[in-house]
Amino acid sequence: MGMTGTDPARRRMLGALLAAGACAVAPTLRAAAPRSIDVVGAPSNLGLRPLRPGHVPGAFRAPAALRARRVVERLGARDRGDVAAPAYAPAPDAATGYRNGAGLVAFTPRLAECVGASLDAGRFVLVLGGDCSVLLGGALALRRRGRHGLLFIDGHSDFYFPRTPRPLTAAGMDLALATGHGPDALVDIDGGKPYFAEHDTVVYAYRDHGTPDEVETERFERAAFLRLPIERLRARGVAATMDEALQRLGRTELRGFWIHVDVDVLDPAVMPAVDSPDPGGLRLAELEDSLALALASPRALGLELTIFDPDLDADGRLAERLVGVLERAFTRAGRFGLAMPAG
Length: 343
What we know:
Layout: H1 8-25, E1 37-42, H2 62-68, H3 71-74, E2 78-82, H4 101-120, E3 124-129, H5 135-143, E4 149-153, H6 174-178, H7 184-187, E5 201-204, H8 217-222, E6 226-228, H9 230-236, H10 238-249, E7 257-262, H11 284-295, E8 300-306, H12 317-333
């Protein structure tokens, strides 16, 4: 993975892998017209705790920062604007036990309506978060339309059930909430929970799922997820690991799948603008290759990007880095009618 994102040999390699992967997942599908992309902003920080008294996490500024780097234009997308989030009020909510619980209950259906409108129009949805709690909006939109899978690309399991009661944050529990573990006000908005079944969920490239003295790690370990930690990816390579993920997500009983990307899956050496910059994450090329392979599947219906904090990116360099990864991954996927960027 030492090659650059525009290396010709790497492009040829990825092209062959993408073609093979798409055929393996959906061999009966014919080539289709390029898929159009809708961009939806979800400028929410409701799932995050303040780092100090009075602190307001800056992840809600990410949609604007990514648009400033021309993400919409570079993907040839249609901009659907932002779904406004409630004001940040991080005191624990008595009804749900979550910080900003009432705000999350109000925001999730509104985001789901916007995402659902794009899905019904047959368009791929790119949600620009915001924090990881925006996963619930896409999850609810898909659940309203049948049974779908989840490709959860994140540096953490986000399945952190504490052994000692404490206020919960949705950005540390979004995988749990999306798979039906939590208060019904968040996990069963329309009835028929979970939004994603555990067996229909792949947890990919994570490097932390908590410590047994602090969280109930056994709950994550016994869940029916397909768990593909970063050690497995490094041992087998991106292509083989993503192929295993797509085999689970490409089953005929699923109508498609959603892709969650928390940018803290990247190593802080290349992406320090996150709230939990733990060492040992993916390189940019590994994330790009993973996304290109996942996006090549005709069953991939949408993707959300979360946790990027522009307050930690004074010159916009890291926002540009993320948009570049998205642009190249969407282009290599071959489904969106994009030309490879110059340089």
